[in-house]
Amino acid sequence: MKKSFIAFSFLLFSAVTSNLSAQIKKQATNTPADMVNVFVGSSGDHGQMSPAASAPFSMLSIGPQTYPNLHMGYEHKAKVFLGFTHNRFEGVGCQGSGGNILIKPFLGDDAKACILNKSTESAGPGYYNVSFDNHIAVKVAVDKNSGIESYTFPQGKKGFYIDLSHTLANRFVAEEHTFGNNEITGWVDSRTTCNVGTYRVYYCIKFNQPVTFVPGDEHKLTATIANNLQQVRVNVAVSSVDVEHAKASVTKQSIEQLKVQSSAAWNQVLSRIKVKGNPEREKLFYSMLYRTVQSPYVVSESDGSFRATDGSLQKTKDSVYNGWAIWDNYRTQLPLLSILYPDRYKSITTSVANLYRFGKKDYATKHEPSNTVRTEHAIVVLLDAYRKGYPVDFAAIADSLKADVDKLDFSHPDKALESSYDTWAFSQILSIMGKTELSNQYKQKALAYKEYWNKDFKDVTKNDVDRVSARGLYQGTIWQYRWFVPFDIKGLTELIGGQKEYIRQLDQFFDNDYYNHANEPDIQVPYMYNASAEPWKSQAMVHKYAVDTVVQYYFNDNSRGIDPFVDVIYQNKPDTYVRTMDDDAGAMSAWFVFAATGISPACVGWPVYYLNVPLFKQVTFAWPGGKTFNITVPNYVEGRKYIQSVTLNGKKLNRNWLTQQEIMQGGTLVITAADKPNEQFGVSEQWVSGIEMK
């Protein structure tokens, strides 16, 4: 009896310890990178994202090219693959951007006749794997500007088809290449996003097996290999500086080592925010955070060399970034980076300022060091960075800033409001520089937005106010653009007719589903109740558009559909988002990240963030050195979306906002949630933007 008991106890102990070991192992591998679903937004016209293997802030992005050719070059449901390309600007418009250097593995004598039908597929941050029904299998890993493509072939004739002129939607311009010992080196020039400017990529493609290069059609070639070879490794590295730097970046590591290294880099970046709550929502959160840190790209080399936007070769002791989508993401993604990565954001700020030193266009120059989109509102970004404590040498670029502001376009209603925002930012910069008289001149010019607003936006009874592109608007309606005065909500409230009318018209806007979360023109509007006597309505709106079912009538093909989108916008699946909605280089994913953490920018240009109930019980911002900022909701319940009370570092907070400094210095914010609005909270000590004349 005693022996049986001992044996039973031993078996029980073994089972418990085995289960515990499995749990510990599971916890050890449950890192932020493990929770990322890289296939989010990769199907249909939903986000324009791809599962390409990439590294944080790196311009090398190796991903599958599928048939038919869609916005991001990849369709999750597609079966036929055309090969693999080596850069993509995630989530942008104009039918996508990037797609340089197509490499297609093939069997037999004719590359075009070889069809690659997907059999299995898997991917995560930094890697991508696929196998085809003809028994070719491909594994890809990327870290920084170096990547490995490992190809497994069956016996028989085989090779690689290489198209050096391939792009997605942006036009190919020119290329030069040189054959070496089992390698190709050279450069490719392509148009930037929307075919406005031109960027150049230097590259090195190196095979680990003997290959024979056979020229084909112009800018195309094949590389054949021995029939008996079954494993071929292709190293690919890129640079924005020159071929020599690309060759120097070719890794000597194995693909598994590179994958581990890339995963570590991703975990380091993604772990700046730690969330605790619904496990499925955690996965969605890190998938969205992953999207926010794809760009801008580091374009400088380790020796400090970089190409400026005028094409000149420069040297620096800093890191230099390029690849901007500022019009899209200056109100969400860039402010998020300013909190999470202060070490990087200092360099990002300097890189934005450098646009005014070396050449800045609203879209792109003829000598971009990487693919890019557009730079409108860069001046607002610089003001915002300065007020958050990032150094900006305004004196060195003052003349260029003035020249940029003096040529702003006020010819359309939306342009008038957007240009007024930049003009206001310049007036603030002049004030910082001590140029009070000139500052007041530009403040007066910014205040002229009121004339434009009264002319086109005051009257919402006209029959075109909910029509996309009415009166020459770019990507929105009169209803959506009329709220775009983030720098002077006090003045906007007066124009509307006072606070009661301001609230009534916001109610009308949302009650009639005039809001469009598929694009950026009005993404700040859910927060605008915070500048009123009913801030609790913003708490409800942020929660609604982050996690609840919504109705959306507007789409990015410039239509107000009769068949609305009725669903949850942010979901952990390939066809997430509203149809036709672009992520726009992290703009929309960063909106969700902010909503999930409980803070969101009040007005870019001021270091202020409005509060809402987080989507998790606990959120922790964690920076190197051990400093943390903790946001906790002790009575968190799913769907409990109103703020009852707030304490900051143990002291009661009556206001519904925080400053950048309060966040960055660390501490603890406790938000007590409620099922019903606390109509007293956030009313007595409000932060509302306005223009003051000296």
What would your notes on this structure say?
There is one protein chain. The protein has 694 residues and is α+β, with helices and mostly antiparallel strands. It is built from 19 helices and 32 strands. The strands form eight sheets. It has an eleven-stranded antiparallel beta sheet. A six-stranded mixed beta sheet has the order 17-27-28-32-29-30. The chain has a four-stranded antiparallel beta sheet with strand order 5-10-15-14, with no helix packed on it. A hairpin with a 2-residue loop joins strand 8 and strand 9. Helix 15 packs across helix 16. The N and C termini lie far apart (93 Å). Residues 1-18 and 20-28 have low confidence and may be disordered.
Which secondary structure elements does this structure contain, and how are they paired or packed?
Layout: H1 2-29, H2 32-35, E1 46-47, E2 53-54, E3 61-66, E4 80-85, E5 102-107, E6 116-124, E7 127-132, E8 137-143, E9 146-152, E10 158-163, E11 172-179, E12 183-191, E13 198-207, E14 212-215, E15 220-225, E16 231-239, H3 243-248, H4 255-270, E17 273-276, H5 279-292, E18 297-298, E19 305-307, E20 313-315, E21 321-322, H6 326-329, H7 333-340, H8 342-358, H9 378-387, H10 394-406, H11 413-432, H12 436-447, H13 449-456, H14 478-481, H15 489-496, H16 499-511, H17 536-547, E22 549-555, E23 559-568, E24 581-582, H18 587-597, E25 599-601, E26 608-611, E27 618-622, E28 628-632, E29 642-648, E30 651-653, E31 657-659, H19 660-664, E32 667-674
Helix pairs in contact: 5-18, 7-8, 8-9, 8-10, 9-11, 10-11, 11-12, 11-13, 15-16
